[in-house]
């Protein structure tokens, strides 16, 4: 056993590894305390059930992360094509026949093992990887509308449109990530501005058509959440519609500076999904303003390290891949935290690596593994150059 542990070599950015480990430890404690009511309702009060399940999922996630970080990041360019070709039909199948929960078909149930997974999590990573690939390959004619912009926007439009009907927040988050990647990839700003404007108009028309046809579905939920957010700012309250937000506010307000302590949250009993969508509110209630700031700073450190890894990458693909994976995760975290403190309408986005989940944690782990793969390659090259300079391979100018 000791030899096995010694044989496990971890490479890549050490700061990223440290941040991920700390977030995972936060996750174990937060999920354990937040799943009390769920365990009472579903598992006859067996709180250890969800704890052990979550720890197992995290361990599997670290395994995925470890394997992914040892694969040369250049290989992900080819893998991206395969993943995108799989993701598009999966999204179409999910939209047509997926498992419907809360008027949204977001999940596919795997036969035999009866396990559900959210296909949009898979599609997000696949699209970001593919976009990094195509942007890097189109750099010579990146300003061309026909030769570069159209091939770049086509997969972005298809994937986002397939995700939109069931999950607006994920589609918007993914679209924003793609726009950032396109900007970094030197796509013409006039094309980017036209894309953003066109997307806003198209979404408005989509809402009008759905309302005119009397097809509410998730559209009614989106409108209700936006109206609740706006009316709350104007001092108008609806106790039924504002239930989630109100209890999240109570959790945040009750935390104070140092919090009530682990396991002493009161709102975990009343707040819907305290172990996923609103876990940040529970963290603030139990660990206070200090705990909330620690989590926020950890994600900001992850963003800064991701930008540094991207800046030091030795190829355009490495830069875009690292930036895409990092921004996608950190932006999702910021949205989740903003919702918890009522700075943003309710979206249903989980907090990466902290919220309880299954396949979402695994795809997050894969994205971090890819980021670490880029950093591992560059750290090796830097070390090799330093060694060569010591050995006198570089002549003095």
Task: Give a structural overview.
- The chain has 397 residues and is mainly alpha-helical.
- It has one domain.
- Helices cover 71% and strands 4% of the residues.
- It is built from 14 helices and three strands.
- It has a three-stranded antiparallel beta sheet.
- A hairpin with a 4-residue loop joins strand 2 and strand 3.
- Helix 6 packs antiparallel against helix 13.
- The longest helix has 34 residues.
- It starts with a helix and ends in a 7-residue tail after the last helix.
- The N terminus and C terminus are likely disordered.
Helix-strand blueprint:
Blueprint: H1 2-7, H2 14-34, H3 36-42, H4 47-70, H5 75-97, E1 99-101, E2 104-110, E3 115-118, H6 119-137, H7 145-163, H8 168-184, H9 189-212, H10 218-233, H11 243-255, H12 279-312, H13 316-340, H14 359-390
Antiparallel strand pairs: 1-2, 2-3
Helix pairs in contact: 2-4, 2-12, 3-4, 4-14, 5-6, 5-7, 6-7, 6-8, 6-13, 7-8, 8-13, 11-12, 12-13, 12-14, 13-14
